[in-house]
Each structure stands twice: as structure tokens, then as C-alpha cells.
UniProtKB/TrEMBL annotation:
One of its GO terms (cellular component) is late endosome membrane. This is Lysosomal membrane ascorbate-dependent ferrireductase CYB561A3. It comes from Pteropus vampyrus (Large flying fox). The chain crosses the membrane at residues 7-29, 49-69, 81-102, 122-143, 155-175, 198-218. InterPro entries: CYB561/CYBRD1-like, Cyt_b561/ferric_Rdtase_TM. It is a multi-pass membrane protein. Transmembrane reductase that uses ascorbate as an electron donor in the cytoplasm and transfers electrons across membranes to reduce iron cations Fe(3+) into Fe(2+) in the lumen of the late endosome and lysosome. Reduced iron can then be extruded from the late endosome and lysosome to the cytoplasm by divalent metal-specific transporters. It is therefore most probably involved in endosomal and lysosomal cellular iron homeostasis.
Amino acid sequence: MAVAWFYVSVLALSSLGMICILFTTYWMWSWHGGFAWNGTKLTFNYHPVLMVAGMVVFYSAASLVYRLPQSWMGSKLPWKIAHAALHLVAFILTVLGLVAVFKYHNKAKIANLYSLHSWLGITTVFLFTCQWSLGFATFLLPWASMQLRSLLKPVHVFFGASIFSLAIASVISGINEKLFFSLKNATKPYSSLPGEAVFANTTGMLVVIFGLLVLYILQASSWKRPEAGITTERQSLLHERE
């Protein structure tokens, strides 16, 4: 029953993550004209979609790999590879999202990195880059000693959750900033809550809910991989299923 409940939770969380991506895509398509890689506003529209997909959904998927029941037993190497690979996908999507916004800003002669949202976002990406590089070098490559890995693991876990939290904050501030720029004329000000504002605010709330659920799963001790040499009820259930 515990394993079945876990899979139901993962399915629900995955569905919510996909909804966040689809809602962001629909927002950019319906209210901002769609997508094109030509340096115009249509290029910018890739930015929110790619950042939500990369820094929120794929990043969380990578972080939750070790919560899968199959990872509770046997070698950790396949799960380390999956963890690193999903983070790499998240990183690639994030870089493309940054390229999109810089490409648009440079063509439109708009200053880069002047807002709090941009400062928060670029800090998040910088920390993510350091986190992935250090994690790859320390936990995936075979040179590091067990003592070094044990020393760095709590730091790695802390920054993993912190970076994800910063990513959620960056997305929320980005949604708000986009609405302030878009809804500033007299016919449909942001304060009157036109359809775009309601939809974008709803998307932001879904991202927050998704983020809180991910953080809950990451912190819940009952969902963590058991320590080596300790047989738990979850492992027994897995053996019974086999």
C-alpha cells in the first residue's frame, strides 16, 4: 500500500508539473503571439516556458530520483547517472531560456540584468551550475573518497533544495514582472484583473503548489532511500512484489 501510494503521488506531481508547463505555454501563445527564434518578442516567449520546464519540472524530477522505490535497493550508480542526466537536461533548457531573453533584449536595445527578478534568476543559474559541476565531479566520478562524499553530501542536499526554492521565487517574480509590463495601459490595467492576469496568477499559484509538494517529498524521512544495511518496511514490500 505504501509503494502504491508513492506511485499515485508521483503521478499526481508529474501531472501538475506538466500542467505548469502547458499553462505557461498557453499564456505565451494566447496573449503574446506564440514563438519564433528571430530576436523579437516571440523569442522572449520561449524564456518563461523553458525556465519553468528546466528549473522547476526537470530539476525537481532529478531531485526526486532517489525517492523512487526501485532506488531503495541495489547499486546507486544507475540512479546517480539518471540524477545527473536529468539535471543536465534541466541545465540545457535553462541555458536556452537565458539565450532567448538575452537575444530579445539585445535586439530590442533593452538593458540586461537590471531587475530583482533577473538578479535572482541569474544567481539561481550560477548556483545550479556550481552544484551540478561539483556533484558530477564528486559523486559520479570515482576519484572522491567516501569521507569526502560524506562530508559534502549534506551541503549538496542543502543547496539542491535551496536552488529549487530560488527557482520557484524566480518564476513567481518573473510572472509578476511580465504582467506589470504587459498590463499597463488604461483599457486593461493589472489592477482590474483581466483574463491574462487571472490566468498568469493561477499559473504562478500552481508553480508554488508544485514546489511545496516537491520540497515536502524531499524532506519526508519516510520517502528517503534507506541507509545501507538497514531493511525497512518499504524494502520488504518491494521484495514481496518481486
